[in-house]
Each structure stands twice: as C-alpha cells, then as structure tokens.
Design brief:
8 strands, about 30% strand, about 180 residues, Immunoglobulin-like, alpha+beta, five-stranded mixed sheet, about 25% helix
Length: about 180
C-alpha cells in the first residue's frame, strides 16, 4: 500500500532532511525560510516568534524587501499606477495591475517591479523584470492575501529612480492557510 509523504513537521526534521539529501548527493529545493531553519547555524538559535506561527505577518521581512529593492534611492509617488479592488471578495486570487506611466526610452526603462503585501506571512507577492525591448512596463497578476492590508508596488528604473504606489485592500475572508 502506498502512503503519502508527510512534510517535515519540525526544524530538526527539516535539518535532518537537508543533511540526508546532501549526503546522498542530491539537491533539495526549499523556500528561504526552510533553508534558514535547516542550516546548522539555525540549529543553535531559538525559533523566532514568526517561525512558531508561520501565518503571522512578517514586518521585518517586509522592511528588508523594501530596503533591498530601493537601496539608497528615495521612492517617488508619481510614475507608477497600481490598480487593486478596494474589496477583495476572493482573497485567494486578488487581481492587481501595475503600470509604469513614465515614458520608456532606450536610455531609461523599468528594469524591475515588485509587489508586496505588508501583512502576508511572506510579503513578496510578485517580482517582474523587464528590458528596454519590452517597450512598456505593465503587468496584471493575482495574489493571495491573508487579511485586510495595504498592497505596495515598487518599480526601479534603469536610471536608478524608484517609483512607488500603494493601496489598501479589504479582505472578505482569510486567503492564506485556507
């Protein structure tokens, strides 16, 4: 009889799984949070509050994502259009449209857009990369939202300019962990 494979339930089990895969010469694809738990350094550290409740918001990661994306640039409020419904009746698939409204030229185009949900357990909802050949920088995606929160979109131009937009979304029911 075939039994379904159960996911690792504790950080210790995850570490053993990663160590076993390494000994067997295999590669194991895990999310970054799982790698952090599976690393030998993590074995000596206590589990943080976020890891004890994986569905809780992660404000530290949210701030890190923004700081990493913006670098030294100060985000501008103009030049990026973010369209999100004010009420999300299906939080498992909330439609979002992002568009750079600045002119796209051979000298300055949008290199990358990220969409962040500030109260999701994993705030980075989407990362999109563009080239000058695209001629435009716009995308429509669907993201899962855990609760009522603010959606943030950031766009980085070739010139180093960072554009920002945000919009609050009311969620009718929980989308993460359903």
């Amino acid at each position: 009889m075939h039994r379904p494979i159960q996911p690792p339930s504790s950080p210790l089990t995850r570490r053993a799984l990663v160590a076993g895969a390494a000994v067997a010469g295999a590669a194991l694809a895990l999310p970054s949070a799982a790698w952090a738990q599976a690393s030998p350094a993590a074995a000596a550290e206590p589990i943080s509050a976020h890891l004890s409740n994986p569905l809780a918001p992660n404000p530290v990661e949210f701030q890190q994502q923004i700081a990493q994306f913006t670098g030294q640039a100060t985000p501008q409020a103009q030049g990026l259009l973010l369209e999100v419904a004010v009420l999300a009746d299906n939080p498992s698939a909330v439609p979002i449209k992002v568009k750079v409204t600045l002119p796209i030229t051979d000298d300055d185009w949008c290199e990358e857009i990220i969409v962040l949900a500030d109260l999701n357990p994993s705030p980075l909802a989407c990362r999109l990369q563009f080239t000058a050949a695209a001629g435009t920088a716009e995308a429509a995606v669907r993201v899962r939202l855990s609760q009522t929160q603010t959606i943030h979109a950031l766009a980085r131009m070739k010139s180093g300019k960072v554009l920002a937009a945000q919009q609050s979304v009311t969620v009718a029911a929980s989308g993460c962990g359903m």
